[in-house]
Amino acid sequence: MTNDMSQYPLRLEGEDAPMIRFQDVTKRYDDLTVLDRLNLDVAAGEMVTIIGPSGSGKTTVLRVLMTLERIDGGVIYVDGEPLTHMEKDGRLVQANAAHLRRMRGKIGMCFQHFNLFPHMTALGNCMEGPVQVLGLSKKEAEERALELLDMVGMAEKRDEHPSRLSGGQQQRVAIARALAMRPTVMLFDEVTSALDPEVISEVTNVIRALSEQHQLTMLMVTHQMGFAKEISDRVVFFFDGSIEEQGTPDKLFDCPEKERTQQFLSAVLEAT
Amino acid sequence: MSYLEFLSTYGELLAGGTLMTLAQFVLAALVAVAAAIVSGLMRLAPFKLVRGIATVYIELFRGTSLLVQLYWVFFALPLFGVSLHKFAAGFLTVGLCFGAYGAELVRGAVVSVPKGQWEAALALNMSPARRMWRIILPQALVIMLPPWGNLMVEILKGTALVALISVTDLMFEARQINSATYLSAQAFGTALIVYYIFARFMVTPMMRWLERIMARRIGRA
Ligand SMILES: Nc1ncnc2c1ncn2[C@@H]1O[C@H](COP(=O)(O)OP(=O)(O)O)[C@@H](O)[C@H]1O
Ligand SMILES: [Mg+2]
User: Domain boundary residue among A132, A149, A182?
Assistant: First the structure.
């Protein structure tokens, strides 16, 4: 696939440069186009929620940003620099492993199924990245991990393995694990979807506290419309690999303009 | 000659052979584990050449008889300028042979670690080597330990063939005693019992113990 990359800037500069920019981002699986020339900006410190029907490409947006998947067209920028590409001889070329590693450090992600490391305790999970990747001493990493476990209300369970924690507890440890890397951008992919209803608030409370107390830029996929409405600066409605409609939560939830948005929202409201 | 008399006459020889069998087993097991990990991981490498080398090794050692391999290493390799002492030729060949079987256990266990584990490790920005070593292999180990228990017993039994290149193991001594005395029942009977005791009361319990330890480390006990 040959892309004319010259139309894309080498970096984003200026006061109003976004923290994240998807520019014409296309992602395909074989002949299925999952993201179709997606354009999306997220400002520094902004909390953006993605909603939309299943299969519309919400998870894919987070996965390409986390560099878990390669994109087939366009560029993603993070913090002013290209993420999926890098500059070489004044042109953008595919990012190499070293560039990806440097850029990936800015981004943290929490998954629907937590994906904690089962052979490590809660504390071990939170120390792994800081020790192995950031090169912190065990002592520094432990201090940092304990502070974060305390923040998510899991300090008491520091020595438990994930198999002995409930889903809500595991997800809170997973959030602490991601935060221990001090990311600038945090991604949450349906972090409450695998949880029993009564423990969902354990996790949403943590995310709420994060959005209030930290300068993090957050991109969240969720099916919890109430939470999305309450916490988001902006809500983006996805349909079939592109943005159908976006706006402030009040506008999008209370007076959606597009018919598909209205249909989706009324279907979701009916189900709950 | 009663069995007790037999034992008091030949016990020392048989004990020496038993020690040799034990040494051959332990070294062959180490070689097998190392060869299995290296070639099992090579089979998962992104480069065709690397995968190819591993495949050739695995096919070669699984597709031919251990006895022929031992003869090759001990009698034929010297013709190409590689002479190994029979002791080293023995455990190396047995180890490499069973390592080829172990490779498939390693590869299978590594790919059966859930994809989410790779992704979580990548999201923490861990390098490929660290992901494998710190996150994937410990979990793969738990998955592959039970089949490794069987393979270990096979390795122990496989070491009996080193007698045929004159390594003075238990089988070698039993054969010596048999040809000198024709006390076949006693000589081979003793060997049978010793191999059985090793397999049943040493190798298997040790592997079970390892399984329990690893299960506990992963928080499953
Ligand atoms: N690894 C993959 N291989 C093939 N198709 C995939 C893969 N991952 C996702 N898809 C497809 O991409 C589309 C979007 O998936 P996803 O981003 O997970 O949607 P959502 O999170 O909105 O439910 C779906 O049709 C899905 O089947
Ligand atoms: Mg999804």
Answer: A182
Position A8 in a domain: no
Which of the 8 DSSP states describes residue A31?
Answer: T
Q: Examine residue A87 and state whether it is found in any structural domain, yes or no.
A: yes
Say yes or no: A123 and A251 in one domain.
no
Record the pTM. Answer: 0.88
Q: Which of residues 111-150 of B touch A (CB under 8 A)?
A: 114, 116-117, 119-127, 130, 134-135, 138-139, 142
Q: How far apart are CA A146 and CA A173, in angstroms?
A: 11
Domain final residue, candidates A132, A155, A182: A182
Residues A82 and A204 grouped into a single domain: yes
Do A271 and A170 sit in the same domain of this protein?
A: no
> What pLDDT digit, counting tens, does each position of B59-99 carry?
999 999 999 999 999 999 999 999 999 999 999 999 999 99
Torsion of CA B26, B31, B33, B39, to 10 degrees: -170
Which ligand 1 atom is at minimum distance from the Cα of A58? Answer: 22
- The answer to whether the beta carbons of residues A203 and A192 sit under 8 Å apart is yes
Residues in contact with B114: Cβ distance below 8 Å, sequence separation at least 6, in sequence order: A115
Domain count, chain A: 2
Per-residue pLDDT reduced to its tens digit, A216-245: 999 999 999 999 999 999 999 999 999 999
B123 chain-A contacts, CB cut-off 8 A = 66, 68, 104, 107-109, 111, 178
Which domain CATH number covers A75?
3.40.50.300
pLDDT digits (tens, 9 = 90+) for A37-83: 999 999 999 999 999 999 999 999 999 999 999 999 999 999 999 99
CA distance B217 to chain A (A): 6
Q: Which ligand is nearest to the CA of A57?
A: 1
Q: Answer whether residue A1 shows pLDDT above 50.
A: no
Nearest CA to ligand 1 atom 6: A29
The helix-helix angle for B48-62 and B86-112 (nearest 10°) equals 120
Using CA atoms in the order B108, B114, B119, B122, what is the torsion angle rounded to 10 degrees?
A: -50
Find the angle CA(A252)-CA(A196)-CA(A153) to the nearest 5 degrees.
Answer: 90
Q: Where are chain B's structural domains?
A: 10-217
Domain assignment of residue A7, yes or no: no
Q: CA angle B204-B209-B211, nearest 5°?
A: 95
In a domain, A11, yes or no: no
Alpha-carbon span B217 to B212, nearest angstrom:
9
Same domain, A194 and A74: yes
Q: Which domain holds residue A128?
A: 116-182
Mention the CATH class of domain B10-217.
Answer: mainly alpha
Contact call for residues A189 and A219 (beta carbons, < 8 A): no
Provide the token pair at A110: 């929490």
Same domain, A194 and A268: yes
